[in-house]
Design goal:
about 210 residues, 9 helices, about 70% helix
């Protein structure tokens, strides 16, 4: 009599494949909360997802491709949330636009960590085809969003690019300095948030003036 296996069977239908892919991403996400990217292996992700390692490679050729898919998912969610905020608030002034962006970035630590990973590790290990697909999808998300923001599409695009650079820079600085221990942690976090807001507001103010002058 055959012994029942605790591992799920190979996905066969399109819906099963979508579910299996999501299970893999969720497994990687859970492990990444407590394990650095460098120390995380495809073997560990396969075990966490209760899959054979070979099955994992049916969905993602490399660890970099898997984490790019996770980043893609996070960015899709973020752009949707940001677009919803833009529709609800319809910001017109510099302070309104800054507040909308800041609020959209609230609680997005995992996204910022993934963006830092993209700029430092992922891109150098991706195939040209995978990176081209990612760039195309991001361009589409960007195009949908710049037409909802209060300035010209070109100025709005520059605002989002600067926002990306600031968010990644702040995340990189936080990673380099490490966590501040004890009661000073909350104070340090508030100072960083305040500095980020000032920098973003200065960028939007400058680009807004540029839009009015042209």
């Amino acid at each position: 009599m055959p012994v029942a296996s605790s591992r799920p069977l190979r996905a066969r239908s399109a819906l099963e494949k979508i579910r299996r892919r999501d299970e893999i991403l969720r497994a990687a996400e859970r492990l990444w909360l407590s394990t650095s990217y460098a120390d995380l292996s495809m073997n560990q992700i396969a075990r966490e997802a209760r899959l054979a390692k070979g099955t994992l490679y049916l969905y993602f050729d490399t660890k970099e491709e898997l984490f790019l898919a996770l980043l893609h998912e996070y960015l899709q969610t973020w752009f949707q949330q940001f677009n919803d905020l833009l529709g609800a608030r319809q910001p017109r002034t510099t302070s309104e636009m800054t507040a909308t962006l800041i609020d959209a970035l609230e609680g997005q630590d995992h996204l910022r960590r993934l963006l830092l990973l993209l700029s430092t590790v992922l891109r150098s290990h991706l195939s040209p085809e995978v990176e081209a697909d990612f760039r195309r999808d991001m361009h589409q998300l960007l195009q949908q969003t710049v037409h909802r923001m209060p300035y010209t599409p070109d100025i709005n695009r520059q605002i989002l690019i600067h926002c990306y650079a600031l968010a990644v820079g702040w995340q990189q600085m936080a990673a380099a300095l490490g966590q501040v221990p004890g009661p000073d942690a909350a104070i340090c976090e508030k100072e960083k948030e305040g500095a980020f807001r000032l920098a973003l507001e200065a960028v939007i103010e400058r680009l807004g003036q540029q839009a009015q002058a042209s």
